[in-house]
């Protein structure tokens, strides 16, 4: 005989009613052995009502003025759900990078000015350390 009187003949409560449901985890294992790495300093983002299109390329003159032609050598097409997950992942990655290494300056003039300032600071001659002054032995 069963010791639990509710076990026989009475309906069991559903998983969501008062009992904690075990959270399932998903592990995605990526095989990137066949992936070909490529560098890009240019990305064009376009979209259709169903998809986001990312065209990647290399801009050999990123700071030139006037018309520039960039050849896109990689195209990634994804749905909006995957695009939003990518946006979140990139945001978290950039946030961690900036917390570790400092803010990423997108304005090239400010970035160049900061680099020039840091370079000039490194080029200034350092005064040799001579110990305490005014001490007579």
Walk me through the structure.
With 137 residues, the chain is α+β, with helices and mostly antiparallel strands. It has a domain at 42-60 and 69-116. It is 28% helix and 15% strand. It is built from 2 helices and 3 strands, in the order E-E-E-H-H. It has helices spanning 80-101, 108-123, and strands spanning 42-47, 51-57, 72-79. A 3-stranded antiparallel sheet has the order 1-2-3. Residues 1-11 have low confidence and may be disordered.
Basic shape = extended
Strand content: 15-25%
Total of DSSP H or I helical runs spanning 4+ residues: 2
Low-confidence stretches: 1-11
Lateral arrangement of strands in the main beta sheet:
1-2-3
Rg over C-alpha atoms, rounded to the nearest angstrom: 30 Å
Structural class: alpha+beta
Instruction: Count every beta strand, where a strand is a DSSP E run of 2 or more residues.
Output: 3
Average pLDDT number? 81
Query: What's the order of the H and E elements?
Result: EEEHH
Fraction of residues in helix:
25-40%
Question: How can the largest sheet be summarized?
Answer: 3 strands, antiparallel
Distance between the termini: 100 Å
Question: What are the key terms here?
Answer:
3-stranded antiparallel beta sheet, 3 strands, 2 helices, 15% strand, disordered N terminus, single chain, extended, 28% helix
